[in-house]
Amino acid sequence: MMSDRLFVYGTLMRGYDHPMARLLSSNAEFLGTAAIPGRLYLMRRYPGLVPSDDPDERVHGELFRLHRVDEVLAQLDDYEGCGLSDQRSEYRREIAQVTLDGGTELDAFVYYFNWDVARLPRIVSGRFQPEAFSG
Q: pLDDT (tens digit, 9 = 90+) per residue, 78-108?
């Protein structure tokens, strides 16, 4: 299954002064704020999303339509430490259903955290705000 959409929930969101966030914003159309079922955890200074079957557990972020899908995803995979064939990679990219704030459901790529979260702090709100975790 292929998609030209990408859901982001951390340092790739608009407004972050990061080279990969700038790459995304200059190579994609912002479709709106959205949410996905899951739990959010803090790794150092960035978040990781793990899937959840609990409808009350939601992670909030943004949805984009990529202009040059293969090229942009290759660069983002490298940034995310995403190995499509290596199960030990930090993140894995999959297609999942996301819900725009207006209720529209769409399939999109999402980066799921692929390592153990047992000892990581959970971001219960499901919203990553780096200024809240700096210090």
A: 998 886 655 688 999 999 999 999 999 999 9
pTM: 0.92
Q: Report residue 102 CA to chain centroid gap.
A: 19
Give the helix/strand (H/E) hosting 25. helix 19-26
> Read out DSSP for 87-109?
TTSSEEEEEEEEEETTS-EEEEE
Cβ proximity of 127 and 65 under 8 Å: no
Torsion-angle region of residue 99: left (phi > 0), alpha (psi -120 to 50) or beta? beta
Q: How many other C-beta atoms can be found within 10 angstroms of the C-beta atom of residue 89?
A: 16
Cβ density class 79-88: b for 16+ within 10 Å, e for less: bbebbeeeee
132 contact partners, CB below 8 Å, separation of at least 6: none
φ, ψ at 9 (rounded to 5°):
-140, 10
The Cα–Cα gap between 79 and 75 comes to 6
